[in-house]
Amino acid sequence: MEPAVPLGVVVLASGSGTLLQAVLEASEAGGFPARILAVGADRTGVEALARAERAGLPHFVARVGDHPDRAAWDAALTEAVAAYRPDVVISAGFMKLLGPAFLARFPARVVNTHPALLPAFPGMHAVRDAIEAGVKVTGSTVHFVDAGMDTGPVIAQEAVEVNAEDDESSLHERIKAVERRLLVEVIEKLARTGCTVDGRKVSFR
């Protein structure tokens, strides 16, 4: 059964916004139980913000360099996101670690995508690390964000085979295709039924 009130989502991005686009297209198709309230970025001039503008969505920028220190930036980002009163915050290619103020304001409500099967290959270079390690299978993970680097509870994962001819770019493209679909599926699941993580029921209704 579709929720009477869609799940409210704020999306954070740092670059091209292809994950954001996947969520936009799902929400525009009809029947999707979530809606994007706003899009935030940590820098100006990125395609994710252009996508938000074309979609008529509110958008904002919170740059680290505009604040005296990381804690001040964290507080400013927290307030910028909180202004939209989201049910869930999606870190969709957002290339900054979220700080303690942010995570305290949105406990168990920040979701991230990662191009590996966590706990394998955390960090910024997951696809490169998988190729260098010579693994035959890697994949995509959607997980809750905690204070660590890609250490939060896993919500969903899907494997992607590593082909002998793969380089970092070709492998990453196939992972991103899975990542976009998996994120949309997770948002829909969170909106409709919540999820069970580490034996604990997480609900957004």
Characteristic key phrases:
9 strands, seven-stranded mixed β-sheet, 205 residues, 35% helix, Rossmann fold, globular, two-stranded antiparallel ribbon, 24% strand, 6 helices, alpha/beta
Q: What can you tell me about this protein's structure?
A:
With 205 residues, the chain is of the alpha/beta class. The protein has a single domain (7-196), classed as 3-Layer(aba) Sandwich (Rossmann fold), CATH 3.40.50. It is built from six helices and nine strands. The strands form two sheets. It has a seven-stranded mixed sheet. Helix 4 (100-105) links the parallel strand 4 and strand 5. It starts with 6 loop residues before the first strand and ends with a strand.
What does the secondary structure layout of this molecule look like, with pairings?
Elements: E1 7-13, H1 18-28, E2 34-41, H2 47-54, E3 59-61, H3 70-82, E4 88-91, H4 100-105, E5 110-114, H5 126-133, E6 137-144, E7 154-161, H6 168-192, E8 195-197, E9 200-202
Helix pairs in contact: 1-6
Write a concise synopsis of the structure shown.
The record marks 150 as: Raises pKa of active site His. (6R)-10-formyltetrahydrofolate binds at residues 70, 95-98, 112. Helices cover 35% and strands 24% of the residues.
